[in-house]
Amino acid sequence: MEDIVSLSKRRGFVFQSSEIYGGLAGFYDYGPLGIELSNNLKQLWWDSLVHARDDIFGVDGAIIQNPMLWQASGHVAGFSDPMVEDQVTHKRYRADQLAGVDTTDLTELSKLLKGKKSPDGNPLGEPRYFNMMMQTWVGPVQEEAAKVYLRPETAGSIFTNFLNVKDTMRAKVPFGIAQIGKAFRNEISPRDFIFRVRELEQMEMQYFINPKDQEADYEKWRDFAWNFLTLKLGIKESNLSWHEHSPTERAHYAKAAHDIYFNFPQGPKELWGTHNRSDFDLSSHAKASGKDLSYLDEQSGERFTPYVIESSVGVGRMLLAVLTDAYTRDSVAGEERIVMKFHPRIAPVKVAVSPLLKNKPELVALASKVYAQLKSQFGMVLWDDNGNIGKRYRRQDEIGTPFCITVDFESLENQTVTLRDRDTAKQVRINVDALTQSLKQKLEQE
Ligand code: GAP
């Protein structure tokens, strides 16, 4: 983890938020390469769901909604983690983490924690629930009636827009609604870099189905998550595993839940959840709002409240998984290097262009022409003429640039450049005119 945190800061992936003021626990800023990487992850997810299919529609809901939404969804009453307090320092800890178990059952946690000390060596109080909803007020008066919540998950405004999307897009069940956006959780102990944060971004998709299809659709969305990670992002299968939630672990809305665990530096932990939320959400919102959220299947004449299969993943957690999976130490020509082996499709910088020497105007002129040509096609292309060529390659390896192009003296004679592959460090000569097409193919390879 230390290596990844250090590289993230050194190379501009992730910074502590408000760092010059000492930071704020559980909040992070993404730097120039981090935002490129996260945009690439989000775009791929969006393309795979909203653009590639005709039964999934996008929305972008407000972060602050009518608080009745969160009462109906059960979050105001039940979105809690078990916490335990150090009796001397009054620092609070997640009880399940201190006990080293995946349960939220207070009786069980109380038994497991009996006689245990806090990380500071002090006695602990009894475990109790702590609500993670972040609150603020709308309007000038900070009174109970003006209290609102920052959304704890993006799903809320998907359920409240069920009718709007169905009617405007003439959607027929089964159909899905996808959303990417920020969510806020007052986590008791934010930890492990960007793994558990208080301001997070989620990619969530709620698929509305006929209840009779729940088993088959649940399996389909589990497969989608696994295939996205392995085939689209190129994450190694050996880093992934399934974890089925026990009844005490499941969220208050879930009838069944399977997480994909990733081997994070701190151990295998939840990356992506697939949940069968049954008709919990639409039924609760129908009851609380008085609106009819049932669905009439015009062909069969059947009326039912759709079940929801949810696919939910954190952008930051996916980014940490990608950083961990890509982080490699190997050696090239006897020299040790750190190389980020991102799939070219998600690499923040696609290509770097270098003139062999920066004080030879004819090399710089041709390299500039190549740079302009590639920049217009691939966007994130870097110009690098600093230091010797070996140093430049090491620098690009460390940020995971899949291809480096060097313009040398032979280029001036025959209009070919060297194209270096990050993973093999092998170089081939390629004609300037064929560069764009060749790179396009290489970047899109499965
Ligand atoms: N709508 C369902 C839902 O929010 P969740 O398991 O609480 O379910 C879904 O969260 C995903 O969001 C998780 O699998 C994880 O990737 C991400 N996530 C949840 N809490 C997080 C946190 N505090 N920091 C970073 N990511 C988080």
CATH superfamily of the largest domain: Bira Bifunctional Protein, Domain 2
Quickly give the structural class: alpha+beta
Low-confidence stretches: none
Question: Would you report the number of β strands?
Answer: 23
Helix content: 25-40%
Enumerate the strands of the largest sheet in spatial order, edge to edge or round the barrel: 3-9-10-16-13-12-11
Kindly estimate the percentage of residues that lie in beta strands according to DSSP. 25-35%
For this structure, the quaternary state is single chain
Small-molecule components bound: glycyl-adenosine-5'-phosphate
Instruction: Return the CATH class of the largest domain.
Output: Alpha Beta
Number of helices: 15
Q: What count of structural domains?
A: 3
**Major sheet attributes:** 7 strands, mixed
Tell me the span between the first and last alpha carbons.
28 Å
**The CATH topology of the largest domain:** BirA Bifunctional Protein, domain 2
* Anisotropy-based shape: globular
Overall mean confidence score, pLDDT: 95
Q: Radius of gyration, Cα only, in angstroms?
A: 25 Å
In the CATH hierarchy, what is the architecture of the largest domain at level 2? 2-Layer Sandwich
